Structures are given as C-alpha cells and as structure tokens.
Amino acid sequence: MSLMPKFTLLLVALALGACRGGTSTSPPVHLVLDMDFQPKLKSQSESSFENWTDRRSMRLPAEGTVARGSLPDPILMPDPKSAGRNPDGSWISRNPLSLNAETLERGRERFDIYCSICHGLSGRGGNGPEGHGLVGRRWPVAVPNFHAAEGKDNRVANLTDGEYFEVLSSPVGRNTMPSYAARISVADRWAIVHYIRALQNLGKQ
Length: 205
Ligand code: HEC
Fold this sequence. Notes:
- By secondary structure, this protein is mainly alpha-helical.
- The chain has 6 helices and no strands.
- The chain has a domain at about 115-205.
- It starts with a helix and ends with a helix.
- The longest helix has 19 residues, at about 185-205.
- It is about 30% helix and about 0% strand.
- The radius of gyration is 28 Å and the shape is elongated.
- The model has no long low-confidence stretch (mean pLDDT about 90).
- It has helices at about 5-15, 100-115, 115-120, 155, 160-170, 185-205.
- The structure holds heme C.
- The site of heme C (HEC) has 23 residues, from helix 3 and helix 5.
C-alpha cells in the first residue's frame, strides 16, 4: 500500500474515533435539521405567550365545550352527576348495555386486563397464598370474591349492576382499590359488569 491511502485510512479512523466518548459543551452542528427544533410548548412547562395570563402551557378546554365523543350518554349514564343511579336516585338494576357476544367478549378482555390482577381471572379475589390475582395476593386487605356461595362477603356478590358500575366510575376508586374512571370508557364499564355476571353464573353451575 502506498503512503497516500494509508494516510487517508488514518484520517478516517481518527475522525470516527472522535465521535466516541468525548463530551463537549458546544452545541452539536446540525447539518440535517429534521424536526429537532419546533415552535411548540412542552407539557407541564411555562408559556411566555402573553395572552395566557396564567402562563400555563397546558390549556383547559374552552368553557362550554365538550370533547368529541364525551357527550354524556343518557342511556348508559342517565344521571351524569351520579354514575350507576337513575335520575330518581335509585340504583340501576339492569345493565343498559345490550348483551351480545361482542359486548361480553369486550367485557372479558377488559376484565382480564384491568381487574384480574387483583380479583383473579375467575373473580374469586382473596389475598395471601390463596389469592387468585398476582397483585391481589400481595394486597394488604382481602380482595372481594364476586361469587356469593364461596365468598365470606356476600354483599359484594349481591350488589346491583348500577353499584358495580359506580365502583368503576368513581374518581377516587374504593378504599384501597384504585380508580378506573379515566382508564375504562363508560360502555366498557358496563361490558365488564356483564362479564362479572357471566362469571357469577358460571360459578353457580
Ligand atoms: C389493585 C387491585 C385491584 C384491582 C386492579 C381492581 N380491584 Fe376491585 N377491589 C380491590 C380491593 C382491595 C377491593 C376492596 C376495597 C375495600 O373495600 O377495601 C375491591 C373492591 C371491589 C368491588 C366491591 C366494592 C364494594 O362496594 O365493596 C368491586 C365491585 C370491584 N372491586 C370491582 C373491580 C373491577 C370490575 C375491577 C376491574 C376494572 C377491579 N375491581 C380492579 C382491588 C382491586
């Protein structure tokens, strides 16, 4: 090999070597900008836009507006202020979501994702070594069993559909159970209630 290619190789090796490990306080040279610099506000940050006197970058919805798809459904939630109740204050006794294979399957899927870790895939709850859910097993209080004949707490098995729906719609959850209001849509909550009933009926056989 003549001297020139050797020299070029050395230069390339040095140039590549410089990319590794070294730190620099000067900003990198941006030959291709891509979308690295954007005029945007990051969440939880302060805005300098002077019309927004509160300086929040995260804006509240304009007053009197409703986000698309968020209109309260009068059938699934007859009293928007009190989930699970009829306008006269009584608990909804019959699940208003029509029951078919699709809604039941949706309920099973959501139950398995959100509830089974504590209440168990079978809905038998419990804690300690006997617990049916991986997380419920370690829970400081016993997770309720949805099956009346087996559970010590028949109250939970005998709640109305509306009461189940209310537990899932509560913004604070129930005692040590976390809230699912923001994670599970109104229709999916009713689908889960259908599935709990299906589990209970299976348990009776
Ligand atoms: C992180 C564990 C955990 C998860 C996940 C969980 N639960 Fe619970 N749940 C509990 C515990 C613990 C209680 C008992 C709360 C108490 O009274 O201390 C409970 C109570 C309940 C009750 C009875 C409320 C009452 O009136 O006493 C219902 C109904 C219920 N859960 C349904 C569900 C459904 C449906 C899901 C899935 C969307 C779910 N839970 C997910 C832990 C959990």
